[in-house]
Amino acid sequence: MSAWTLPASAGAFWLGLLGWPMTGGRISVALWMLAGIVAIGTGLALLPAEAGGAGPLESVGLVPAAGSALERIAPPRLEHGRGPTVVAALTVLLGVACVGVGWGGFHEHRTEGAFLARLAPAHVEVEGTLRTDPSPGTIGWSAVIAVGRVRWYGREVAVRETLWLDGEDEIPEAVRGDRLIVGGQMLVPDDPGFASSLLRRGIPAELRTSSVQRVGPSTNPFMRAAQGFRTFVGRSIGRLFGPREAGLLMGLALGDDSRLDLAVARDFHATGLGHLLVVSGENVAMVLGPVLGLAMLLRLSRVPRFLLGLGTVVFFVVLTGAEPSVMRAGVMAGIALGGMLLGRPRSAAAILAGAVLVLLIVDPALVWAVGFQLSVVATAGMVALASSLAERLRFLPRPIALATGATLAAQLGVTPILLFHFHEVPVVTLAANVLAFPAVSPALLLGLVAAGVGLVSVGAGRLLAAVATLPMRYLELLADRLARAPIPWITSHGGIVNLVIGLATVCTIAWALRARPRLPRHILVAGALAVPLLVWSSALSAGPPSGLVVRFFDVGQGDAALVSSPGGANILIDGGPDPEQVATELSALGVKRLDVVIATHPHADHIVGLPAVLARFPVDVLLDPGCADESPIYADLVQAIADEHVPVRHPRAGDSLTVGDLRLDVVSPQGCWHDTESDANNDSLVVMVSLGDDSVLFAAEPEEPAQQVLLDEGMSLGADVLKVPHHGGATSLPGFFEAVHPQLAVVSVGPNTYGHPVPEVLDWIAATGAEIRRTDLDSTVTVTFEGPRLLVESAV
């Protein structure tokens, strides 16, 4: 059998798991499994006899019988005349895929029919172990708990199932591994999206908590040791390093983002360095390498070396919370250590495939985990491409060529997945990862050594911490500078077609680089440069429009709009409720900088997306009402403004700004409101943006009192285009719309429970003769001023 058999089988099983939802359950799980077993048996029967009597490990590539060092790192190139026949191979792979479909169906049925889900909507008390640290949300907190016992209505049953905890009180003082007793109401989510998300994680229901009691640490001695180590190391790190560096080191070493500075996190994500803030296979290698090196120095024999390495891997997996990427690396390390124990060479491709198969059989829900997907494709990219790319970088010093080849290979692997899930990839990530590579290991290892030494001697620990701070500061500075570099982003609207094309393109590149004879270099370079142009939409360049253009982004129940002028001016009004969406939209449009950002008022549906915008784009000035607000969401924005050193102004009615060829007039407020139904809404900045005779009134959320002042003061409100106040809610006056008398009124609105937009308000707007567009129906609305008329385009 070919060394590609195991990797191909892992891919087929993966596709089978993904394929179960597409079948709609029309064929039973038993039939899928039976069909798969029959197909595998038939394919194996069709295989030609192999000479040499290769063993089962050799036949699938886990233990190659021979080969050069390079062949042990990457699978051998395909050669004609070897391996199973095409028919036999395809039959086996089809069988594996069918088994995957059946296994996915079995997992889904088991999760849907879980005992805890059948208890809903009863009030219960569960006892179990936290699988994740409690994390704060917009309201309350959430966590995942592995339940061991459940009590309800005087009955008690032992179970082994998982629940989603959802609490509205203060976050409990507990960490993963702790034992809890939690009371509350068992629910199966009504929201189909949330229910599907839980189902894909193998979680059958949620528990709306009413009481949480920490019983104690884990009863598992291994887990308890990991908890103690994490606590001691965390305290030592906090004592020796400054807040920013302590949070960064906790992220680098343990994937613990609880102390991570938000500005650092935004910069790392904006440059494609976010993977450094979560534990990954790289961390496993960094920890395991020194341990095995110590074992060699101590001249330990093969079995003790294997046990020490395996124990280190298991301990690290438990320590870091068994993140999908760490589990993948841990199982790979276990297989590799097993090969070391046997004293036989290993194939990285077969080890990766074996790890993927083992993990997907044990936990099929991993197939939907984005972290697991990225970890696997990044590793596969390095296995298939790193050596070939490094060979073509001979003009660089060998260490730099290897690091660059590995970075390029991993980035090629993850790009289709990133575009599918997150719709964007910063082009600067290649340079960022290459430049960050020399500092990551020193920052991590020196930081951990400093923390360990600090437990014995604070003075010596601080000395080492000072040295470890240097590479950390370098990483922070690198991320900060590159985050706002005027370099375009590759963007995509996602979709399965783009994903398939992207993965096929990566496979083609891998084949071309490994082909014999090699393709000419100029063809490879041209193909690589054409990928983002032909496969994904990319704002590689974007010039100013010929006329005034306003884009009202579809951000759901929230507001965000971009004004662009022929003179190149860009004004962003609000950032929507999603932390990343508006920044992504701006990247897709090729925006390089923003002259003005306006935070109309401190409500989440208007400002949550602004910190990411400030992290990515240079901003000349930010305008906000400047009225008192103590919400944590507004505090995050204030901190982001300070981190990015953005000047802030608090204008009042009558103030005007010239922004390139645009004029910006502040219409409201005259001052901060007090004791109204919603002071924050009435404090909203209402601005008129105009270019010559073309004008747009952005009426954020002023309610009746603020609108009445505008009417009483006789403010000039007439505009060609109106951004309707408060998502079309019943908080406006009909006279306000009459005073504006727009040609076009845009309602920025999404699914909501408030009844927005209110039919009566829409009637008032229609009575002025205005055309009405809604982002919930039309998606993003783009308005282009072409002389006396408006060109209105919808994204749907």
Structure report:
This protein is an alpha/beta fold and 796 residues long. The chain folds into four domains: 5-112, no CATH class; 115-219, OB fold (Dihydrolipoamide Acetyltransferase, E2P), CATH 2.40.50; 224-395 and 436-486, no CATH class; 549-794, Metallo-beta-lactamase, Chain A (4-Layer Sandwich), CATH 3.60.15. Helices cover 49% and strands 16% of the residues. An eight-stranded mixed β-sheet has the order 14-13-12-11-10-9-22-23, with no helix packed on it. A seven-stranded mixed β-sheet has the order 15-16-17-18-19-20-21. A hairpin with a 2-residue loop joins strand 22 (781-786) and strand 23. The longest helix is centred in the N-terminal third of the chain and has 27 residues, at 86-112. The two termini are 50 Å apart. 46% of the residues are buried. Residues 51-83 and 533-541 have low confidence and may be disordered.
Short summary:
This protein is of the alpha/beta class and 796 residues long. The protein contains 29 helices and 23 strands.
How many strands? 23
Helix content bin: 40-55%
Sequence of strands across the biggest β-sheet: 14-13-12-11-10-9-22-23
The N- to C-terminal Cα distance equals 50 Å
- Uncertain segments of ≥5 residues (pLDDT<50)? 51-83, 533-541
